[in-house]
Structures are given as C-alpha cells and as structure tokens.
UniProtKB/TrEMBL annotation:
Gene3D superfamilies: Ribonucleotide Reductase, subunit A. This is GTP-binding protein LepA. One of its GO terms (molecular function) is oxidoreductase activity. It comes from Nocardioides bruguierae. It comes from the Bacteria.
Length: 285
C-alpha cells in the first residue's frame, strides 16, 4: 500500500503545477482594443490603477518576505521566487499598460520601503519558534490578499463585459483572474498545515498580532485606505457583509473557531468599514 504524501510534498507538487500550467501572461496575447476609453476610464480607471499598483509592488513584497522570514521553508521560496513574483509582476505590467492607454498616468509604486513592524517581526523571527508565528501571519495575509483579488477580478470582469469591452475582459481580466486561485490555494494549504503544528502559545500570539496588524490589501497609509474604499464602492461591495466574510472565511475558521460565533472577526470588519468611511470623508472634503 502506497504511503500518503506529506503536506510538504503536496505543496511542492502544487507549486510545480502552478508554474507549468500558468506561466506569466505573454504581453503579445493581450488585446488592448477599447471601444470607449473615456467611459472605461471614468467607470473603472481608478480600480485599474489600484490593482496595477498592488500587483507591481510584488518586488517590495519579496523584500518584506526576506525581512520577515530569515529562514523560510524551501517550498515557500520556490513559490514566491519562481511562480508568484513572475506572474504577479506581469499582471501589474498589463494593467498599468491598459490604464496608460486609457489616458491615465502609470501607477505610483513603492518598491523599496519595508515597514518598522515587519522589521521588528523579522528580528524576532531569528528565534525559530517565533518564525513560525511570522510564517502564519504571512500565510494569513496571503490568503486575504488573493481572495480579495479573486472576488474583485470577478466583479470587474462582469462590469467590463456589461460595457461591451470584450477584448479587455477576455485577454486582460480572464487570464489574470485565472492565476489568482492557485496562489490562494498555496496560502490556504500552508496555513492549515502550519496551524495544526503550532503550540498553544504560538496560536495565541498569532491571534493577537493578527488583530493588531490586519489591513485591506494594498493599504499602507491613509490615502491608500481611502483608495481601497473607492474601489469597494465602484465594485458595489461597500455594504456587502458576504464579500468580507468570503475573504475571512478560512482565517475565521482557523483562528476563531472557538471564538464569539461571529461570521467575521471584528478587526477585519472594522478595517473594511474604515476604508469605506475614509473614502466618503475624502469625497466630502
């Protein structure tokens, strides 16, 4: 009888398949033809800008990972170096090219600055037991980021199709959104495996640090928080509890299964509500 594969072996196989089945999107395969650039820019231009910036900042994300995890598992390095980074950076280039063709400026990115909190966690992560805490935070952030992307790209695709912009929908959004679920699956598999191995004190610390550090994807300052709120409004999810619940589903299951019985942790609800409020306050000002 064949022995069952280890969780690590399954992860390596998953990453290998991602790389083989989903190479970075060839720019030559993209049809940037737009029937009504003005209208597409008016409706979704700022969404494209936000998404392009987030995807292009993958280079800084790798610097953050190198800071946060001084001794990461080989499969993690394999994933972010050989699969995730090449795919994501190409997503950003395509989206940025699209918004430029709509008459917008290139996305303004930060590719170098690593925050103090990450540097502090990275310093503590030289202690082996604490690095597992940092790894868990990395997987949780990855899950929330990729799930947000999957949901947002699905809504954006439907909106662009409704506008009759089939070329953009099928050669830009579809190829990008096809690659995001594999990233989410990597983080989810990794999180489930690691969570089962953590000691009670490590799980307690993960919960505490996560509740202090959570922020919506691509948000590093108040201006970006308002930008995220604008994206939520455009996509029609400002008041959608299910949207937030889907992003937090696995995190809620793992970290808070014995918690207060809430469908979404308070800190996640407050972060998304804060983005909506920031966008409204900026618009009013």
């Amino acid at each position: 009888m064949a022995r069952p594969r280890s969780a690590s072996a399954r992860l390596v196989e998953h990453v290998q398949k991602l790389g083989e089945q989903h190479p970075p999107i060839d720019l030559a395969s993209v049809d940037f033809a737009v029937k009504d650039p003005r209208l597409l820019n008016e409706r979704f231009g700022h969404v494209l800008d936000f998404m392009a910036r987030v995807e292009l900042e993958v280079d800084r994300n790798v610097l953050e990972l190198l800071t946060l995890l001084p001794d990461p598992p080989e499969v993690d390095v394999f994933f972010y170096r050989d699969v995730w980074q090449p795919q994501e950076i190409q997503h950003g280039r395509i989206l940025d090219e699209l918004q430029v063709r709509l008459g917008r400026d290139n996305a303004v990115t930060d590719l170098e600055n690593v925050g103090f909190k990450l540097k502090l966690l990275g310093a503590l992560s030289h202690l082996g037991a604490f690095q597992d805490v940092s790894r868990m935070l990395y997987y949780l952030t990855g899950m929330a980021t990729e799930r947000s992307a999957v949901l947002a790209y699905n809504i954006l695709h439907d909106g662009i199709v409704e506008m009759g912009e089939g070329a953009i929908a099928e050669t830009v959004i579809v190829p990008i959104k096809r690659q995001e679920p594999g990233h989410y699956a990597f983080y989810q598999l990794s999180a489930r495996h690691l969570w089962a191995e953590l000691a009670p004190w490590q799980k307690w610390l993960v919960r505490k640090l996560r509740s202090f550090s959570f922020s919506p994807v691509g948000v590093n300052n108040p201006e970006q928080l308002a930008d995220f709120g604008d994206v939520m409004a455009t996509l029609g999810v400002s008041e959608d509890v299910q949207f937030v619940a889907q992003i937090a589903r696995v995190e809620t299951e793992l970290l808070w299964a014995r918690g207060h019985g809430l469908p979404v942790p308070d800190y996640i609800v407050q972060a998304f509500a804060g983005a909506v409020s920031a966008a409204r306050e900026r618009a009013a000002a």
